User: Fold this.
Amino acid sequence: MKCRVCREPAVIDVRRHNANFCVEHFLEQCRRQVQKAIDAFDMVQPGERVLVAVSGGKDSLALWDLLVELGHRPDGLYIGLGIGDYSDVSGRHARAFAGAKGLTLHEVDLREDHGFDVPTAAAVTRRVPCSACGLSKRHLFDRAARQGGYDVVMTGHNLDDEAAVLFGNVLRWQTEYLARQLPVLAGGNGFPRKAKPLVRLSERETAAYCVLRGIDYLVDECPMAAGNRHLGYKEALNRVEEASPGTKHDFYFGFLERAAALFREGSGDQGQGLQPCSRCGAPSPAELCAFCRLEERVAGAEPVVLRARGATGRRAAR
Assistant:
């Protein structure tokens, strides 16, 4: 197996490109794909301040590293979600990466700073853990961007993630979500711009990038994500991709090119009817924002103890 660029021995094949790459040219390919996404969707301008949502997993750490490689100086934000050993290990990977690179990592701990964690919120509200988790992360990333003067929040959503979410939204014709399923969401009305620079890279490619760059990352899936429909959609699309390489790319980018604008036309003004939350000041359609209502509801609840099994870091992709 030879590298398509230099004909030296290759270390990875990227079937949707019908190409193999050596270490040097695979890393170059990753940088090029991220820069292409940034340019194509106008994600960030020179001089703008970038905040990366850091989880300690392969995608967020690959993104942070790639942005540095491309000449940006982004800061990171890690949120301690209180998910047992899983959160403990993920935090260690985030801190180790930031320390090794000399980067700034801000931290928020749900339990220490807001009096609850994801397992406890899930138990009290009797809703799936991903609901409280997603709500908390969105609120805290937005707040950190406002308070820190960041222009854009970047997340490590890769091509597999976006294709799976799109698949689920199309199956249920979730038109409101389809209108917002874009690589960039404009800022305004108290919200920072959101961007996903990894949309041109697959999950396998971000894992390989970390391996080849020597980046230790948390491998295990969140122990509270069992039964998440998103994972099922990923598995279904993986089977299609195996039989027909390039399907995920064509599905997602075909949607962006041919259909996304149709859903945006009828979506209306996303900031309409917002007011500052009476407690935290975040933009909200009600007197109290959803995060503050969750915080009130869970206040004083007995913490749920959860231990994740096998949360480890590796230097090898699955």
In short: The first helix runs from residue 23 to 40. Residues 41-221+229-268+283-314 form a domain with the Rossmann fold fold (CATH 3.40.50.620).
